[in-house]
Design brief:
- By secondary structure, this protein is mainly β.
- About 15% of the residues lie in helices and about 40% in strands.
- The protein has 2 helices and 16 strands.
- A hairpin with a 3-residue loop joins β4 and β5.
- The chain is elongated, with a radius of gyration of 22 Å.
Length: about 250
């Protein structure tokens, strides 16, 4: 095992990170990449190796040089992996998902060899960070005391929903809604659903979406703390799905 000597750390200024699609940021800063690799190796931080067809359990980065990363070989590593693109996924000190998109080069009985990364990606996750809702997700709620409305969930966060209404009736910004029941589909888990209810919410956006040809609402939820943890777990699974979809074909 051997380690790459890294340059003296520089502050991770916002200018080092460039926004890209779907909530990701990226950096090509050699100092930031080296700092991340040092932390992974020296602290034995668990990482996950992901491709379109494969996801490892927890493993660790055991070394690197200026050309390669060395990773402890998972027991179920596929023998047909040569030349494929992979992601090395881990959480940083702020518990945000980070990953490298790199190509697999070779393997021995105990070590995987990948090309050295040139770019580090980071997925911002805040309580108001939204992820796309799985197809088929829906919500129902009550407004104006007794009117019931059904809607399609387009994206979600721990504290909000973005929805398109199934009916033609518009709901004005500032309207309080009650008895919110959310049903989210769970991709890859058969017909399982994740359901939660919220007592109150407020409409913070209301507009007609020309592309969808539907009236859309942004809802700010007054969600109980006991429901936040389960919802956050669901959102984290969606984040991992986003990471997988961002892999090169």
């Amino acid at each position: 095992m051997f380690f790459k000597k890294t340059k003296k750390d520089k502050p991770q200024g916002k200018s080092e990170w460039i926004p890209v699609k779907a909530g990701f940021e990226k950096t090509r800063s050699e100092a930031i990449i080296s700092q991340s690799l040092d932390r992974l190796m020296l602290n034995r931080v668990f990482i996950t190796v992901i491709s379109k067809e494969y996801q490892s359990g927890s493993t660790v980065l055991v070394g690197c040089n200026e050309h390669q990363l060395l990773i402890d070989r998972p027991p179920d590593w596929p023998e047909t992996a040569t030349g494929k693109h992979f992601q090395i996924v881990f959480k940083d000190t702020r518990f945000l998902w980070n990953h490298f998109n790199i190509q697999f080069e070779s393997a021995t009985s105990d070590t995987l060899y990948f090309e050295f990364p040139k770019t580090l990606f980071r997925l911002q996750r805040r309580t108001n960070y939204r992820v796309p809702a799985p197809i088929g997700s829906k919500v129902s709620f009550v407004f104006d005391a007794s009117k019931k409305m059904d809607a399609v969930v387009l994206d979600l966060s721990v504290t909000g929903l973005f929805v398109s209404l199934s009916g033609r009736e518009a709901i004005q910004k500032g309207t309080e809604i009650t008895d919110i029941s959310v049903t989210l589909c769970c991709p890859g888990e058969g017909n399982q659903k994740f359901r939660y209810t919220v007592g109150r919410a407020r409409v913070v956006r209301s507009f007609y979406n020309e592309n969808l040809r539907a009236h859309c609402l942004g809802l700010r939820l007054d969600i109980e703390n006991k429901d936040k943890e389960d919802l956050l777990k669901f959102i984290r699974r969606q984040e991992l799905s986003l990471l997988r979809k961002s892999l090169p074909r």
